[in-house]
């Protein structure tokens, strides 16, 4: 699917009454994955701007949260960003990964920050971007698992640079960048397979 075809599909689906009401795939939380080719990331980011403008023109309010920007905000608010940047160069990668996973833990830090943004916003759809930029510190399945308690009333769409496969035989798998198998997440629907 080309980026233009993706945009057309997403506008049709995300502006539909069925989607906005959370009707359809039969999952109990309206979570959707929008997988795309990692090689087309820049084109998809440009497309997102047009997509969100088109949805706004149709009266659909979209709250976009970039997980990378949100992570920087969290580190800054906790007074950790400058310290992490100073220590990053001399720290072994596995130690840096462990530190970042701790200070950006989805359950303790990231999802509460998302919940605060949800509470101060009026929106019809929550869109999460930046999952590729926060890997390996933040894993998409951890975010989605922890979001279930706070983002269950409106549809949530996670833009994912990779593939999302779902079958009865093998379950579901998120393959970041088409190479890194993430843990299984069963409660999201591939938005590319969702008909308006």
Which structural class is indicated by helix and strand composition?
Answer: alpha/beta
- H/E series, N to C? HHEHEHHHHEHHEEEE
The chain-level mean pLDDT equals 85
Rg computed from alpha carbons, rounded to a whole number of angstroms: 17 Å
| End-to-end gap | 17 Å
Beta-strand content estimate: 15-25%
> What is the overall shape?
globular
Total strands: the figure is: 7
Helix content: 40-55%
- Tally the helices: 9
Enumerate the spans where pLDDT stays under 50 for 5 or more consecutive residues: none
Q: Sheet bearing the most strands, described?
A: 7 strands, mixed
Topology at a glance:
Layout: H1 3-14, H2 17-20, E1 31-36, H3 41-57, E2 62-66, H4 67-77, H5 81-88, H6 93-103, H7 106-119, E3 125-129, H8 131-134, H9 140-147, E4 156-167, E5 171-176, E6 180-181, E7 188-190
Parallel strand pairs: 1-4, 1-7, 2-3, 3-4
Antiparallel strand pairs: 4-5, 5-6
Helix pairs in contact: 1-3, 7-9
Which terms would index this structure?
196 residues, alpha/beta, seven-stranded mixed β-sheet, 9 helices, 20% strand
Describe this structure in words.
The chain contains 9 helices and 7 strands. The chain has helices at 3-14, 17-20, 41-57, 67-77, 81-88, 93-103, 106-119, 131-134, 140-147; strands at residues 31-36, 62-66, 125-129, 156-167, 171-176, 180-181, 188-190. Strands 1, 2, 3, 4, 5, 6 and 7 form a 7-stranded mixed β-sheet that branches. Helix 1 runs parallel beside helix 3 (41-57) and helix 7 (106-119) packs across helix 9 (140-147).
